[in-house]
C-alpha cells in the first residue's frame, strides 16, 4: 500500500468526526445487545470484554517484538547496495509465506499456549513494518543525509536523531497495517491453539450454532478494533504526518 495514498485517506477522514461519534454510539448499542443476548448462555459481555483484553495484550506484545525486529531487519537489508541485493529478495519471499502453515509446528513445539499465538502473530505482522523501514530509508533525501553526517550524526546518534525521526511516519503507517493484520490472524490462531481470547470466545459461539449471535459478536469485535484505531493510531498518524509533503 502506498504511504502517500494512505495519508490522503487519513486526511480526508479528519472531516468526518460526526461519523466517528455515530460509530461509537453503535458500539455501545452493540455491546448492550450482546450483553442481553448472552446473559443466560454463559457467554456474558464481561467474558467477552475479558477475552478481548487478553487478545489486546497478546497483540500488543507481538507488536512490540515486531517493531524491534522490523527496525533491525529493515536497516540491515538496506545497509549497503550489496547487502540489499542479497537480502531484499529473501525478505520479499518471506512475506509471501503462508502464516498458518507453521501453526501446527508451533503447537507441537510450544503446545496450546500464548507463546504459540504470539509467534504466529509476529510472523504475520512483521512485514509491513519491515517494508515501511526499507521504504523510508530508500526515500530519504540525499542533502538531508549529508547534512546529518556533517553535523556529526553517526552511529547511535545518527539512529536516534536522524534515522528514527525520518522513519517515524512510515513506521506508524506500517504499524497500522500490521495491527490490522494481527486482529485478522489472532481469531484463527486462538481457536486452533485453544488460547483464551476474543477469537476463542467467538469460536465458542460458533460451536453453539447461533449464527445471529456470532454475527453480533463479530460486529462488536470489529467496533472495538475500530475504537482503538480512532483513539490511538489515527491521532498518532496525524501528529507525525502533519507536515509531511505529499508526492
Summarize the helices and strands and which ones pair or pack.
Layout (H helix, E strand, L loop, with lengths): L2 H11 L3 H22 L6 H33 L3 H15 L7 H8 L3 H25 L3 H9 L4 H39 L4 H10 L3 H31 L6
Helix pairs in contact: 2-10, 3-6, 3-8, 3-9, 5-6, 6-8, 8-9, 8-10, 9-10
Quick summary:
The chain is mostly helical and 247 residues long. It has helices at 3-13, 17-38, 45-77, 81-95, 103-110, 114-138, 142-150, 155-193, 198-207, 211-241. The chain has one domain (26-241): MetI-like fold, CATH 1.10.3720.
Q: State the fourth-level CATH superfamily.
A: MetI-like
Report Rg: 21 Å
Q: What is the typical, i.e. mean, pLDDT?
A: 79
Helix content: over 70%
* Architecture per CATH nomenclature, i.e. the level-2 architecture: Orthogonal Bundle
The counted number of beta strands is 0
The name of the CATH topology is: MetI-like fold
User: What would you call the shape?
Assistant: globular
Runs in which pLDDT lies below 50 for 5 or more consecutive residues are: 1-16
Amino-to-carboxy terminus distance: 15 Å
CATH class: Mainly Alpha
Number of helices: 10
Class by helix and strand content? Answer: mainly alpha
Please describe the biggest sheet, giving its number of strands, its sense, and whether it closes into a barrel.
none
**SSE ordering:** HHHHHHHHHH
Number of domains: 1
Quote the beta fraction.
under 5%
Amino acid at each position: 500500500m502506498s504511504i502517500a495514498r494512505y495519508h490522503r485517506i487519513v486526511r480526508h477522514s479528519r472531516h468526518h468526526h460526526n461519523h466517528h461519534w455515530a460509530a461509537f454510539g453503535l458500539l455501545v448499542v452493540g455491546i448492550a445487545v450482546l450483553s442481553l443476548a448472552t446473559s443466560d448462555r454463559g457467554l456474558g459481555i464481561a467474558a467477552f470484554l475479558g477475552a478481548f483484553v487478553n487478545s489486546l495484550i497478546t497483540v500488543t506484545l507481538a507488536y512490540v517484538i515486531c517493531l524491534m525486529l522490523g527496525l533491525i531487519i529493515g536497516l540491515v537489508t538496506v545497509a549497503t547496495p550489496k547487502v540489499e541485493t542479497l537480502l531484499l529478495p529473501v525478505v520479499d519471499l518471506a512475506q509471501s509465506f503462508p502464516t498458518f502453515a507453521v501453526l501446527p509446528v508451533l503447537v507441537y513445539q510450544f503446545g496450546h499456549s500464548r507463546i504459540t499465538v504470539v509467534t504466529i502473530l509476529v510472523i504475520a505482522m512483521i512485514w509491513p513494518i519491515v517494508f515501511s523501514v526499507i521504504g523510508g530509508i530508500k526515500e530519504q533525501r540525499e542533502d538531508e543525509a549529508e547534512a546529518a553526517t556533517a553535523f556529526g550524526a553517526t552511529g547511535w546518534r545518527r539512529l536516534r536523531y536522524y534515522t528514527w525521526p525520518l522513519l517515524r511516519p512510515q513506521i506508524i503507517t506500517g504499524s497500522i497495517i500490521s495491527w490490522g493484520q494481527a486482529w485478522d490472524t489472532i481469531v484463527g490462531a486462538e481457536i486452533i491453539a485453544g488460547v483464551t481470547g476474543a477469537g476463542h470466545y467467538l469460536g465458542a459461539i460458533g460451536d453453539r450454532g447461533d449464527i445471529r449471535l456470532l454475527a453480533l459478536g463479530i460486529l462488536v469485535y470489529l467496533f472495538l478494533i475500530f475504537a482503538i484505531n480512532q483513539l490511538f493510531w489515527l491521532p498518532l498518524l496525524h501528529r507525525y504526518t502533519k507536515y509531511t509533503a505529499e508526492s
